[in-house]
Each structure stands twice: as C-alpha cells, then as structure tokens.
Amino acid sequence: MAPHSPRRWRRAAKAATTALALVVTGSTGYTAHAADYERLVNGTFSGGTADPWWNGAGTSGRVTDGEFCTAVTGGTTNPWDALIGQNGVPFETGQSYTFAFDARATTAQRVSAVTGEGVAPYRQIAKQDFDVTTTKQRFTYTFTSTLDFPDAGNGQATFHLGGQSFDNTVCVDNVSLVGGALPPGGGPGAPTKKIQVNQVGYLPGLPKHATLVSDSTTPRPWTVRDSAGATVASGQSTPQGLDAASGDNTHLIDFSSFDQAGTGYTLAVGDDESFPFDITANPFAELRHDSLEFFYHQRSGTPIEAKYVGDTYARAAGHLNVAPNQGDDNVPCRADLNCGYTLDVRGGWYDAGDHGKYVVNGGISAWQVLDTYERAVALGDADALGDGSLKIPESGNGVPDILDEARWEVEFLLRMQAPSGMVHHKIHDANWTGLPTLPAQDAQPRRLSAVSTAATLNTAAVAAQSARIWKTIDPAFAAKALAAAEKAYAAAKANPNVLADPNDGTGGGTYSDGTVSDEFYWAAAELFTTTGGAAYRADVTGSPHYRGQSLSTRGFDWASTGPLGDITLAVVPNGLPRADVAAIRSAFTTTADAHLAQMATAGYPVPYRNPDGSYDWGSNGLVANNAVVLALANDFTGAAKYREGVYRTMDYLLGRNPTGYSYVTGYGDQPVRNVHHRFWANQLEPSLPTAPPGVLSGGPNSALQDPIAARLLQGCKPQKCFVDHIEAYSLNEVTVNWNSALAWVANWAAEKSDGKAGCEVDYRSTRWSSGEVATIKVTNTGEKAWNGWALGFDFPGGQKITNGWSATWEQDGAAVTATGLPWNERVAPGRSTYLGFVATSGATDADPTTFRVGGRVCSVG
C-alpha cells in the first residue's frame, strides 16, 4: 500500500487553441465566480508539498515559502523539454475555463501555460505564452475546451519551462483552473443502477438479497427475470429508510424463495434493472484459484511465464541486476544508516502497485495464505488446495501449490534478516518509480530501510508457522525456518521498541506502527504452537491480547495482528487449557454477532464499522478479514447465521454496494478495471493490460488521501468514497494483504458451497403434553475425521432445552448448537456419535428439518 505515488508526466502535443482571452496583472489575488468549479488540486501549496504536481525530466522542484519553485537546466531546445504539471484534470467539451496563476523567475523568461491530454495522442486543448519576470505577477487566460474528460481520466494542465539557454528557477503559486458545467465527480463514472446485486452469483438454499435505491416509503413490486426476459419470480420490497453509510434511501429485496439454478437473471423494479447474476451451486469455484494466482503475478526476481498466465500477462523478471535494473542481489542499507553490509533479498512478492517489498505487509499476507491451508486441514477440506490446483511453475512437485506459492514469500522474509537477528522493515527503490513502469524496466537503485521490531516479529511468526507446516514436507527447510524464528524473537525481545520511521516514505510506503504488543503476542502464539516452549506459553498467556482481546468490529490488518495469534490458538492443536481455547473461540462468535447485528440494519450489509462511521484506506481488506471472523465463528459453532454472513459479505464485494462495482477484477458485469498498479496500467498505456481476474481493490476511503480522490469526491458518504481510477491510489490500489484476505474467504466460501454434505443426521423424538425428549445420531459421511464438531439446527416451534447429554448444549432463541465433548469430539469417516436432550413444548412441536455440521447442511436419515 503506497501512501504516496508519483504522478506520471507526458509532453502535450501541438494543436490549435480556441477562444483565448488573455489578462496579465500585477495582482496576486483571484476569486472564482460562484458557479465555477475548481479543477486543480493543491494550487496554493499551503501544505508544504507539491503533490500532485510533478516535475518532468531536467527539472527538480520543491515548495519554498508557499511557492512551488522548479530549477530548470538550460540548453533545451523546445519549451516542452522542461515541464511541471498535474494530471487527472477534468474538462468538458464546449465549456469555458479560466487558467490563472502567479509566477516569477530568477531570470526573466517565457513560460507557456498548457491544457490538454496526458496520454497518447496528447491532443492539446489550449496554450498561452507569458513573459515571466523577477517580480511576481498574476497571469490569466480563458478558453473553451475542445476535448471531453469529465471524470478526470486523462486531462492535464502543464507549464512549459524549456527552450532557454541558461539555468533558471521558476516559481508558481495560487494556480487555478475554474469552469465547467459538472461538479467534480459529476462525470459518468459507474453506470447508475438503482438495484444492486451480487453480480457473480447466489447459492441455492441460502438467503438471496439485493438493495433497491428508492425514496418510496411503501413497498415496491419487484420481479426476477430469466436470461430471456421472462418473469420467474416476484414480490414486494421492504423499505429501510436512509442508510447512513451510503446516504441512500434503501429498500431490501428478498428473493430467497426463488431457488432455480440458472444464469443471466436480473432483478427489475419498474423501469430499473440490475446487473445480471447467476444462481449456482458454487459461485466461488474459480475465484478461490484466481485470488491465489494473483501472488504468482506479483513475484519478484523471476519471469512471469506465458504458459501459466497467458501472453497478456507474461513479463520479464524484475530486479535481477539485469540492465536497467540495479538488482536485489546485493542491496545496501539506506545511506544514512551505515549498516556495513549488503543483503541478497531476491524473490518475494511486490507488495502492491509499486515495486517495494515490505516485511510487515508480506508477513500477514504469507501467514494468511498459509492459514488458508492450515485451517482447511484442521477444520475443513484441503483437497482443493493440493498439488496441481494452481497454474504456477512448482505445480506437480508433490507439494500443495498453495504452500509452494507462500514459500516464495517466506524465503524472502528469511533473507531480510540481519546478522543481529533483527529484520529489515522493507526494501524498495531509492525514489518513487513512475507510473507505469514494468519491474524489468525499473532503473532505480534499491535500498534497505532500517530494521524494526515489527518486521522482526512478523518474520518470527511466519517462520514459526512455516516450521510446523513443512516439518514433514521438507524437514531441512522447517529447521531453517524455526532457527530464524527463534533468533528473530530473541532479537525482538532484546530490542522491543525499534519502531519504523514514519517519515521514511521516499520511494516506498512507511508502514510505521507505534504499537508492537500485538506482534509480540502473534509471534509468541506461533512459536508456542510449533514448539510448546514454556517461555513462549508464558508470553502468550501473559499478553493483554490473550483470549481475543484485540478483536474488534473494525477488523485486523498488518498493523493489528493480535487476532492472527488468536486464530492459530483456536484452530491448531496446542497445549492450552480447553477453557482458554473455548474463550478464544467465544471471542470470535461475540465479534461475529456484533457484525451480524450491524449488518441487519444496513442498506448495503457489510461486516465493518469504525466508531465514527468512516471507512479506512483498504476498507475492503478489513471487510474481507471480518468475513474471516464470521467464517471461523461458523467453523466453531456450526451456526448457519455466520455462514450466511460470509456470503452476504461476498455480495457486497461483488457488487451489492452503492458504487455498483464488483471490487474484484474480472468478476461481474461491472468490475473495477483501473486499479493502481505499475504494470497493470491499461488506463495510462493501452499496450499494457488491466489486472487479471481475482484482484481485490482497496475500496472506499473516507480520508480521500490522493489528489484524484480529493478532487472528485469531496463530501462523499463513506461507502461512496470510491472511484475506479488508476491514480486514485488511496482508493483503488491492490496489495498482497488484501488479496490474501480475499483468497482465505473465497476458499472458505467455495468449500462451504461445494454441495458435499459430509454428514447425516437421524433425529427421533418422543413427545408428551409439556415437553419432548430427542435422540440424535450424527454420522460422518465424509472422507476425513472430524477433530471437533458442532451440530446446529433451529427449533420450528419455540421449544426450550432444559437438559442435554453427550454434548455442550447452547440455545439462542430458536437456534441450537451442540458441541462435541473431549471423549466424542473426534468422529472418524463412516462412524457416528449419539447425543440427545429434553425440551419443553413450544407453540408447535414440529421437528427441526435442517441440520448443519461445520456449516454444511447434512442429509437426514
């Protein structure tokens, strides 16, 4: 995740200029007419930075005393040989604009103020020359646009400073471009839909919901239409009123009763129609693999081969010290650190849309990919994650492909360890690379940032996890990983407060984190689970994060890693007391219940909430991680409500949100296309591709932390603070840790919707006037043993359990959960366990009809 990315620059082509009116004054004040819209960002440079203004070749600029001053090297031939400018400027054909600015120069020279297109064919809208002197003057001209960029796609404003024989410094201030008919963000953007659906697919037998935007306070009739346009279902919407997160007046459309499998369905209300969707047994069968194959595309230090990704996405290896690269094989520390050594840090995954590799983001990403596998082995079905499941070079080597992919990053994390045992925080270019730039074309020198406690603990945690996973697969690698983990943990204990520099943001993101107690807890949990060591156990049980204390409705991410330790302790067998493991699991269900309660009142249900209602940078990653919490609550209890919550979360990510976008590339009729990335950069360079299918966009961000977002989205409601633009990096970037969350959830969702029950229930009851007694036989009809099970069902008539046996019984309203005891929690394939209860009568005394184990619906014997 790059908190700052440099803007690209393009030379504007020559073209005719229309309807120019020129004014030059000595005044430095300018006020736009009230009806005008300001099109430029940061024209006053009052924040002390020039962003998003850029400097072209042969120039260097900085903000000094509130002016943007650029040093220009003399001897250029043409005015456009030295440029400064701003991209993403919106223009509308036929509309009037006034370009105004203050300027002065060390030596008097001619400067051109130009507007036009920032990409090929670089068409020009308007150009005017001004004689700038040593005295600051106000310059103004008015023109009519001949081009149309209403959504800030490829418009550009520049100053041409070249064509002089002498070196010079030119300063500009109070730069303004006002005009146009549409407000910022008023362009076409996403096609407007008043009915938002999961654009990929819904599961038979589960709730199917959509959101209608309507000011009506009474129900609206809706219909489901098949691909031929015929009506196949109908009903009435439920008004929900004003939705705070989106600002929309919403209605719920519940079409759960329609269960016919098919493709190309649409929902219609009056003249409004949704995007198409399917009803299918497993809408996530392809996404589970595409979301994992993202990581092969992000590999550093190896060619991305066409036989795995196709010709469109194949590319040369990056950062192998092949010109123009300076390579990752012998990387020194940043000049001011004087560490006295270099490291070979080849490999790993490029973190995001840039060419940096960051340990604290790589750590959670590698861990989550590995946990996708480890959780499936412990609680689910790992067969779909086996060897041959992904299109990667290691496929066919006898090791599950998901582990091969994760190992590419784990090996890099181990290489980032310094001789002291501490781990360097990150490695990236000395300066930000331009956009777009393929990795093999990156000429920047590479530099290691300082070591940090957070990076050291990330490596300790992932290496310890790797040691237990590879113990029987590759004992030598497992031993190497464990040695690195223990060395790193000891180094972190000796250096507990070495925090990453929050100002180290040149060339790469800072990833600074002021609190590392959560990383200590996570690393100790991994080391304890792997080794059983008493010292690690003491650090786990003595942590303030123990037993789920860091779970929250905001969610977890690279800076909040305590829940990762909780997941390991709750899923992987270890030596903790059963009551403590139960308490950790209970923390997940408590947090999951808070998510469900919030989702129940939302117009666009999603498991995410900050106290102030805002959405953070990478909100979609947090949403996906909160879906992990819901999924684990289902694993731990078998309660259907949590499984349904996961699928409703996927609805949001795949289109049931107020932007109308599927936030996953290649999925749905309107997926995001223009994610912030240096080589999936089709919006800037048509010869380059868009992102491959299965890549998660960062999503809405209330803070609008990039110039495109700031220009287009001021005043947006939290869920609408989004635009599908490659330079909106605070909204539309992609990162390894957001995709690792998507991959975890997509694999869980695919597993839980594969149609294989794996269980059978024989339910028998005897009733009398005031109650009943029931005996239940539960059979494992799957191929793997259950190491812990939970049976869930709903009473149809209001019965209340008063006593039960052979399980821990819990009841919440109609929902009942029975969890296995130590003596019967393991059920081998083909074997059964028996349990029962006594209950009081309800209004009616019908038997339950649907039973679930591990979230899967069981057949009834």
TrEMBL record:
<keyword id="KW-0326">Glycosidase</keyword>
<dbReference type="Pfam" id="PF00553">
    <property type="entry name" value="CBM_2"/>
</dbReference>
<feature type="domain" description="CBM2">
    <location>
        <begin position="752"/>
        <end position="861"/>
    </location>
</feature>
<dbReference type="InterPro" id="IPR012291">
    <property type="entry name" value="CBM2_carb-bd_dom_sf"/>
</dbReference>
<dbReference type="InterPro" id="IPR013783">
    <property type="entry name" value="Ig-like_fold"/>
</dbReference>
<dbReference type="InterPro" id="IPR008928">
    <property type="entry name" value="6-hairpin_glycosidase_sf"/>
</dbReference>
<dbReference type="Pfam" id="PF02018">
    <property type="entry name" value="CBM_4_9"/>
</dbReference>
<dbReference type="InterPro" id="IPR014756">
    <property type="entry name" value="Ig_E-set"/>
</dbReference>
<comment type="similarity">
    <text>Belongs to the glycosyl hydrolase 9 (cellulase E) family.</text>
</comment>
<dbReference type="InterPro" id="IPR033126">
    <property type="entry name" value="Glyco_hydro_9_Asp/Glu_AS"/>
</dbReference>
<keyword id="KW-0136">Cellulose degradation</keyword>
<dbReference type="InterPro" id="IPR001701">
    <property type="entry name" value="Glyco_hydro_9"/>
</dbReference>
<keyword id="KW-0624">Polysaccharide degradation</keyword>
<dbReference type="GO" id="GO:0030245">
    <property type="term" value="P:cellulose catabolic process"/>
</dbReference>
<dbReference type="InterPro" id="IPR018221">
    <property type="entry name" value="Glyco_hydro_9_His_AS"/>
</dbReference>
<feature type="signal peptide">
    <location>
        <begin position="1"/>
        <end position="34"/>
    </location>
</feature>
<dbReference type="InterPro" id="IPR012341">
    <property type="entry name" value="6hp_glycosidase-like_sf"/>
</dbReference>
<dbReference type="Pfam" id="PF00759">
    <property type="entry name" value="Glyco_hydro_9"/>
</dbReference>
<dbReference type="InterPro" id="IPR003305">
    <property type="entry name" value="CenC_carb-bd"/>
</dbReference>
<keyword id="KW-0732">Signal</keyword>
<feature type="active site">
    <location>
        <position position="724"/>
    </location>
</feature>
<dbReference type="GO" id="GO:0030247">
    <property type="term" value="F:polysaccharide binding"/>
</dbReference>
<dbReference type="InterPro" id="IPR001919">
    <property type="entry name" value="CBD2"/>
</dbReference>
<dbReference type="InterPro" id="IPR008965">
    <property type="entry name" value="CBM2/CBM3_carb-bd_dom_sf"/>
</dbReference>
<dbReference type="InterPro" id="IPR008979">
    <property type="entry name" value="Galactose-bd-like_sf"/>
</dbReference>
<feature type="active site">
    <location>
        <position position="733"/>
    </location>
</feature>
<dbReference type="Pfam" id="PF02927">
    <property type="entry name" value="CelD_N"/>
</dbReference>
<keyword id="KW-0119">Carbohydrate metabolism</keyword>
<dbReference type="GO" id="GO:0008810">
    <property type="term" value="F:cellulase activity"/>
</dbReference>
<protein>
    <recommendedName>
        <fullName>Endoglucanase</fullName>
        <ecNumber>3.2.1.4</ecNumber>
    </recommendedName>
</protein>
<keyword id="KW-0378">Hydrolase</keyword>
<dbReference type="InterPro" id="IPR004197">
    <property type="entry name" value="Cellulase_Ig-like"/>
</dbReference>
<feature type="active site">
    <location>
        <position position="676"/>
    </location>
</feature>
